[in-house]
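Example 9 (inverse folding). The structure is encoded as follows.
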């Protein structure tokens, strides 16, 4: 069974966590993915390892780590891959893949242009 785990940085600001939760609800509603969860790199809960465990407990055999990060950096290039490697050891029968950061998506320029256009309204 496929799962998506949305990974965000984490924040002390409650509104940030609420926005992530709401986004995950939208992903669930607009997809046919059985398991959609969220986790945070730091500060907020659940942590990435906890989020992976939650997906596995719900029956995930494939987890797609969906990076809610705009660009590469230490977290994307080092911290998250290290955490994922540890999870692969803990859950050897679960396929875990990691997406590129959002800024690598081919439609990001169009999205930003749309945001610029809407800012003038």
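The amino acid assigned to each position is listed next.
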């Amino acid at each position: 069974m496929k799962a998506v785990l949305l990974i965000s940085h984490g924040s002390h600001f409650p509104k940030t966590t609420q926005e992530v939760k709401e986004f995950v609800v939208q992903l669930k509603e607009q997809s046919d993915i059985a398991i959609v969860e969220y986790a945070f790199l730091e500060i907020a809960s659940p942590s990435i390892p906890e989020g992976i465990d939650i997906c596995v407990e719900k029956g995930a055999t494939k987890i797609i780590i969906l990076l809610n990060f705009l660009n590469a950096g230490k977290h994307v290039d080092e911290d998250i891959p290290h955490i994922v490697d540890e999870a692969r050891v803990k859950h050897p029968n679960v396929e875990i893949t990691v997406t590129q950061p959002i800024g690598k998506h081919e439609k990001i320029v169009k999205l930003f242009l749309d945001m610029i256009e809407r800012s003038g309204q």
